[in-house]
Amino acid sequence: MAQLTGAYPVAGLRARPGLRERIDLPKRVVFAAAASMIFIVALLLAFIAWQGIQLFVKDGVPVGQIFSATWQPDSTSPNVTFGLLPFMAATVLVTAGALLISTPLSVGLALFLSEVAPQWARAIVQPALEIFVGIPSVVWGWLGITVLVPFLGQTFHDDIVLSLPVVGTVLTIPGFLTGFSWLAGSLVLSIMIVPTITSVSFDAFRAVPQELRTGSLALGTTRWQTIRHVLLPSALSGVLTAVVLGMTRAAGEALAVQMVIGNSPTMPAAITQPVTTLTSQITLDMGNTVFGEPWQDALWTMSLVLLIISITSVVLVRLINRRRMGA
Amino acid sequence: MLNGTRRFGALAIAAAMVAAACSSAAATPTPTTAPPVTPAPATPTAAMSASTPAPATPAAAPTVNCVTGTITTSGSTALQPLIQDAATAYMGHCPGATITVNGGGSGTGLSQVAQGAVQIGASDVLAGTKLATPDANKLVDHVVCRQGWIVVTNLDVTGVTNLTTQQNIDIWTGKDTNWSQVGGPNLPIILVFRPASSGTRATFKKIVLGGATEATGGQTLQQDSNGAVTTAVTQTHGAVSVIGFSYYNDPANKPLLNGLQLDGVNATIANVGNGTYKLAADGNLYTNGAATGLTAAFLQFMVGPEVQGTIVPKDSYGPISQ
Q: How do residues B183-200 score in pLDDT, each as one tens digit?
């Protein structure tokens, strides 16, 4: 390419210099790409919002009803109720469980890669993480249903009782009736979001100026003190962004979760019991309902709730980053 | 430093690639569309094309009404194996016909046929129970088979070979929660449901439970397909569910499941046919208005002797009552 540029007869083109200014093709192409992207997102938002409010507008369901704990969508049942609370609660709880397991693991891994790992270790761990990202969710779900679910069901069959010497029994968690459970969903998700949280936090740690590390070490701190008091505070907003991105990924995952959580449409009672998330209820009922019936409208409302969750997290990430810019 | 000529060069290459892509795309259909014209005789309707296609089964060929064209079906996954096998057989007889068989669920089939997206929508339940009345009235029902469902349990539920209707009601509404209450081992009952919107569940609820509200809670699971249900039942101690005959009779599933009688009647196609086994329903194929062309010919083929006599029993369905 360099040869070409050097030897190129540019004189002929210079003869009409106005052309390039008038039709700046590359600029137009990238502008069109950006515009169509915004257009698609806007259409998507408008469509889901429109479909999502049909339950209230067309079917006359009061908005407050979606916060009921009763999911009774069958038109033949005596009191039809579109309570989405069990699904919203399960989505929040399963996601929270996944983050609780995944965050320490991923941030630790990112710190290892960024601060501790020798070159050869990084050369192994980073490609391994990339392979992780490429594993389809159905494979995680399949592993979950064939390995994790039977393991949980058979190993923790009895009630788990936490008790203190003086106080007595503090907490009783019922044992697994089956392995299908909130915990199984959280475990599968926690593995799936490790690469997201790790890679974004890794970038955050790498972005901390080298001077801060050397300065801190020059004051005589240990490596752990540097990490704890210099690196983590400086990279905190980046790590939070990573966690929020992981959260969005977890809340939106459908297939793998649906395969292991048991899909019982009731309020989550214990971590050992089956629950249903928004995404899994949508995939369960999608094919069996018909377009325009209140039942399917309720599924669109669930999509709208998911969209609101995802938009909220994007706004959250923006706010976190703005704070970082301001600081 | 943008070099104008180089940019034009790149554009020229891009244009050439587009042109190549277009020409190759345009070239492909030509040879594929050509051959079907030759074997299919010029009479598109009601042609008894006995001699032309079907070198394999000359005996059955004379009864097949061959119409060329392309149609798509979607809907019930319980009916999908039958429609798929029938479509393959029809296309074997009539090379000019293309029938694409999709699943998606009964609701999808009804929605899409009402919208005109597919020519045939398959459903386990009647259109009137799902669609709004104006849409349902447009659709024409074609019953192509009887389908039966069987109550199955995990193999560790020993000693239980039969459940009465009343026992089923007690189990599925959550009144009985242990297998010992119906003569089985001391083992909690785990109910594995299809989603409430599924045709299988609606049929079971109507015929066996008499419309009673099913249990919810920690001892209930939901799985969204016959396959997922089978996996859950085989892996979960004390699990019980309801699956289609075609899935139960699959050699890969049958040894892993304990199939139960209903009110003392064996779950067999013969008993579905003579009406003694009650957990059965018609398999409905819907068209939007009266069927025409290839759709009509295919529906006629589905109730004809080849499908009803050979394919229906092979796939564990019951023939339609004559």
A: 889 999 999 999 888 888
Structure tokens belonging to residue B68: 């060329």
Most confident of A8-12, B6-10, B51-55: A8-12
Q: What are chain B's domains?
A: 62-146+281-314 (3.40.190.10), 148-280 (3.40.190.10)
Number of domains chain A contains: 1
pLDDT, one tens digit per residue, over B29-62 is 333 333 333 333 333 333 333 334 434 444 444 5
Q: How many residues does chain A have?
A: 327
* CB-CB under 8 Å, A293 with B131: yes
Contact B218 A290 (CB under 8 A): no
pLDDT digits (tens, 9 = 90+) for B127-138: 887 777 777 888
Residues 20-79 of A with CB under 8 A from B: 20, 25-26, 73-74, 76-77
Question: What's the pLDDT at A3?
Answer: 47
User: Is A305 in the B-facing interface, judged by CB distances under 8 Å?
Assistant: no
Q: For chain A, how are helix, strand and coil distributed in percent, rounded to 5?
A: 70, 5, 25
All residues of chain A having their beta carbon less than 8 Å from the beta carbon of residue B197 are 73-74, 284-285, 288-289, 295
Q: Which residues of A touch B199 (CB under 8 A)?
A: 288
CB proximity under 8 Å: A 247-276 to B: 258-259, 262-266, 269-270, 273-274, 276
Of the candidates A86, A257, A269, A281, the one whose C-alpha atom is nearest the C-alpha of residue A184 is: A257
Nearest to A276 by CA among B183, B229, B122, B222: B222
All residues at 6 or more sequence positions from A272 whose CB lies less than 8 Å from its CB, including other chains: A152, A156, A160, A173, A174, A175, A176, A177, A181, A182, A183
Amino acid at B100: T
In a domain, A45, yes or no: no
A196: left (phi over 0), alpha (psi -120 to 50) or beta: alpha
pLDDT in tens, B161-186: 999 999 999 999 989 999 999 988 99
Indicate yes or no: CB of A284 within 8 angstroms of CB of B236: no
Is residue A41 included in any domain, yes or no? no
Question: How many Cα atoms are found within 13 Å in the side-chain-facing hemisphere of A193?
Answer: 34
In a domain, A236, yes or no: yes
Tell me the pTM.
Answer: 0.76
Measured CA to CA, the distance from residue B47 to residue B104 in angstroms comes to 33
B55 close contact with A: CB closer than 8 A: no
Cross-chain Cβ contact B221/A178 below 8 Å: yes
Angstrom distance (rounded) from CA A171 to CA B71? 61
Q: Which domain holds residue A169?
A: 64-326
Q: What is the nearest CA distance from B88 to chain A, expressed in angstroms?
A: 24
Cβ distance B105 to A273 less than 8 Å, yes or no, reads no
pLDDT of A10: 52
* Helices vs. strands in chain B: H and E counts, helices first: 13, 11
Question: What CATH number does the domain containing A141 carry?
Answer: 1.10.3720.10
Asked if residue A34 belongs to a domain, the reply is no
How confident is the model over B58-95, as pLDDT tens digits?
444 456 888 889 999 998 888 888 999 999 999 999 88
Tell me how far apart the alpha carbons of residues A110 and A199 are, in angstroms, rounded to a whole number.
7
Take residue B1 and report the two structure tokens written for it.
């430093």
Q: Is A167 on the interface with B (CB under 8 A)?
A: no
Q: Residue A299: which H helix or E strand, with range?
A: helix A294-326
Range 132-161 of A in CB contact (< 8 A) with B = 145-146, 149-150, 153
